[in-house]
């Protein structure tokens, strides 16, 4: 397990220059926003407008902070809020967003078609313990609160915006506990 602390995540402009994104993890490590196999990031959306186009990419979006957005993908509108399930769509579709009431922050997971697929699951812990099973490379991203991860070597504490990375070679399970909202991201190589 590797811990990706919020303080070490890379801030950069959006591909279309319309805002700021924070890169949590990318593969390969030296990839850019034009040639990655997969990428996990957050973004702040402060105004209505078009999303960046990523050819041959599948994308999942979840609202982390703010009152939500109305996402239009090829003319079909979907309302996303902090309690909505993660929403998946083609990143090369014509996509734009209308803010419901002010700035939002979202989580973006993107994978290249033919190379990887991904699944994203929202987890809410209310002072309880849960067990996560890992068969593939996975990430646990904390939105808010604190999560304690117990594993064979001891334990780790994750705070808001921290992320734990589990390699595919670490198949097994870990116990997580605390009071928090998080997302479990699973990447599968095709």
From TrEMBL:
Annotated InterPro entries: RmlC-like_jellyroll, RmlC_Cupin_sf, Uncharacterised_HutD/Ves
Gene3D superfamilies: Jelly Rolls
Top-level lineage group: Bacteria
Pfam families attached to this UniProt entry: HutD
Stated name of the protein: HutD family protein
């Amino acid at each position: 397990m590797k811990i990706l602390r919020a303080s070490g995540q890379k801030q950069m402009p959006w591909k279309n220059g319309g805002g700021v994104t924070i890169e949590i993890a990318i593969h390969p490590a030296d990839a850019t926003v034009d040639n990655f196999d997969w990428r996990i990031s957050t973004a702040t959306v402060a105004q209505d407008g078009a999303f960046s186009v990523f050819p041959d990419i599948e994308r999942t979006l979840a609202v982390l902070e703010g009152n939500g957005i109305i996402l239009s993908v090829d003319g079909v509108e979907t309302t996303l809020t902090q309690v909505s399930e993660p929403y998946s769509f083609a990143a090369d579709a014509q996509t734009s967003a209308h803010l419901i009431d002010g700035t939002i922050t979202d989580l973006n997971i993107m994978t290249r078609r033919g190379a990887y697929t991904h699944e994203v699951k929202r987890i809410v812990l209310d002072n309880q313990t849960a067990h996560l099973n890992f068969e593939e490379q996975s990430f646990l991203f904390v939105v808010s609160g604190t999560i304690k991860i117990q594993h064979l070597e001891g334990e780790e504490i994750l705070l808001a915006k921290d992320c734990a990375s589990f390699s595919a070679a670490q198949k097994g399970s870990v116990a997580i506990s605390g009071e928090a909202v998080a997302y479990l991201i699973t990447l599968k190589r095709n």
